[in-house]
Amino acid sequence: MKLRRPLLRASSLALTVGLTLPALAGEPSLIATTPQTTAHPELWPSAKSPASITDAKTEAFITDLMKKMTIEEKVGQTIQGDIASMTPADLATYPLGSILAGGNSAPDGNDRATPKAWTDLVDAYRKEALAKRPGRTPIPLMFGIDAVHGHNNIVGATIFPHNVGLGAMRDPALIERIGQATGEEVAVVGGDWTFGPTVAVPRDDRWGRAYEGYGEDPEIVASYSGPMTLGLQGKLSPGKPIAPGRIAGSAKHFLADGGTQDGRDQGNAVISEQELVAIHAQGYPPSIDAGILTVMASFSSWNGQKITGNKTLITDVLKGRLGFEGFVVSDWNAHGQLQGCSNVSCPQAMNAGLDMYMAPDSWKGLYENTVKQVKSGEIPMARLDDAVRRILRVKVKSGLFDRVAPQVQGKFDRLGSADHRAVAREAVAKSLVLLKNDGVLPIKAGANVLVAGDADDIGKASGGWTLTWQGTGNKNSDFPNGQSIWGGLKEAVEAAGGKATLAKDGKFAGAKPDVAIVVFGEDPYAEFQGDVANLAYQPNGKTDLELLKKLKAQGIPVVAVFLSGRPLWVNPEINASDAFVAAWLPGSEGGGVADVLVAGKDGKSKRDFTGKLSFSWPKRADQGPLNRGQPGYDPQFAYGYGLSYAKPAKVGTLSESAGDLGTAASVDRYFVAGRVPAPWMLSFSGAGAVKTIDAGAQENGRQATWTGEGEGLLAVQGPPVDLSRQTTGDMAVLVRWRVDKAPVAPVYLTVGCGESCGGRLDVTSTLSGSKIGEWRSAKIKLSCFQAAGAQMAHVSSPFGLSTSGPLAISLTEIQLASNEGDAFCPK
């Protein structure tokens, strides 16, 4: 990774960081060459949690409470379990301090559970935590959830644009209103803590979490983190809890999760302390000054040392120089990644300053080991007491000890309420960035408009972290209070006296349309599933470009509305369009797009384009890190770019040279749409053969036939890849198959890692239960193969199917997919 020039002005930088600009210029001769893992607090900005967090009344209450608590109860406060791996009854034995619902966790495993089912579940946990038991001090639980862009876990909630779009608004006041609406919708369903705001500064758009950041420049993050904190929590008052409808926030991920090498999720930020401060720390002081109650430590590393175990950063900088008085929580089992630790044992993390372990499925063993480590002195009692005091302090300020009767919980009419949807619609409109307009926008009143592509797909427009972790498999019916982009366009076009027709494939009958609006872009993803090797859009088959060109060839002006979680190289698509709009991931209020694109009867749209790029747009797909101020900065569209109706500009024909993309390998796609992407090969060895077939489309399937004259193996093979992160992330092998001839001998599904290891699962009953000639899909958890002996860090064959008997199977899809409660281990 190249060292990058900080983006703050020299005057403000010297005041904030206490360093002169030359020391931060990124010149190798001026920066230490030895990897540094020890922070120097005097070089960092100063901040301070408001005195209202540690007021005398609160601290006296905590002191009295802690006198009654046993070691076991204190340790329990420092551990958080996930609802998918525990039940309320567990709290009778294990006095945990918090629960969470992770990305794919929901009541009874139902991602579409009703709001009432959520409140009932949370109340069941609360009841058990506060039950009177001999020798037990009742202490309320905190319920945490990732409300990443609105309360995205609940059917019917308002889904706001992802942060990548919000950064383009440059509107801190609107950010605060978004925070307030989000907090209320979480509180309505019983939550009292969200893991946000995200104050990461993504420096490499190949990172799968880039869309969780507001921008590549710390100026945007710093301007938003305080207002978002105030929106979620409100202003804190001495001796009083936060107001009803407000919830605790968590600034994350401390620190430099957006600065990892090659944009790798949970990777290593190889940067100087100066860059750590000037780029990645700038969002924390405003949030701390505004009263943020929790901070989440990052999975990632700084110069090779995991942040969760870095005492100089957590204790000396965050709790010292930055004056943070709330508590620090880890990310999902992140403590287990520390050297010498496991998911069930990690005193190093608490001794470094971590206050609460997020131990979703490891909570029981971790609780038992941590109790032993405190009693043995391996974790000092003073450190435990400090952690517990901080946790109780946040619980007091969150009003958990004052919950006499819910004041907001249960008011389900506030989910997706008209006023919240209006805020989201405004955010959608303000987040749009106009990259090109050759006079086709705004759409004129009375026009005959063809709308094509994915315009009627709210799930795609919402992206990852929507109802499920990866955001896949959503239908418009899952957004009963929402409106698709198509819905908004149709409404606006017809209101202006025009006609709108939806045709996903761009085909039309009758009169030629006056204009076509094509909505297309990235499919939903989250975290590591979104990591990419380069910024090329649709590198393995440009179907969207073909659609644009087809419409242009018919003499129809084309408006492209591009959905993405990051800037991508789309020069060919821009050239094939008369207007090109970066719409990011706008969420559930598609009408906000129409507010800008479509003119009313007066010839004017409701809003002009005001969005400006908060991420630089690439000129080539191989540019990698591309940030304002870095040496050699050469974007297609610079940071801050954005056209408008009031200030138009001509965009000429762009270069369609993608650059050197190398041989990008697919880690998670093995056979899709009739293709076997590099570096994989699909082959048959032994008694049988495989052939290409048509399965609903030309040559999109393969049929494997076993003769029964010995062992036969159909396998995807290639160079070893590391699937350990996918395994811990609860991913699964998705296979779409059709049984053409039923098995008569055992059939095994395998993941191979060389001659000496591998995992084999018996899937005979799964295949035998399939109706001959009927297409089916199944998701087999990667963890099943790991449990069967596969070494997931060195997988050379992510799919194998073997039997010694006669069998015929057809396949159309083999790839990794998110477990959304539908994956299993064969029995």
UniProtKB/TrEMBL annotation:
Residues 1-25 form the signal peptide. Keywords: Hydrolase, Signal. InterPro entries: Cellulose_Degrad_GH3, Exop_C, GH, Glyco_hydro_3_C, Glyco_hydro_3_C_sf, Glyco_hydro_3_N, Glyco_hydro_3_N_sf. Residues 432-645 form the Glycoside hydrolase family 3 C-terminal domain. GO terms for biological process: glucan catabolic process. Residues 70-394 form the Glycoside hydrolase family 3 N-terminal domain. Residues 687-816 form the ExoP galactose-binding-like domain. Pfam families: Exop_C (PF18559), Glyco_hydro_3 (PF00933), Glyco_hydro_3_C (PF01915). GO terms for molecular function: beta-glucosidase activity. This is Glycoside hydrolase family 3 protein. It comes from Caulobacter sp. 602-2.
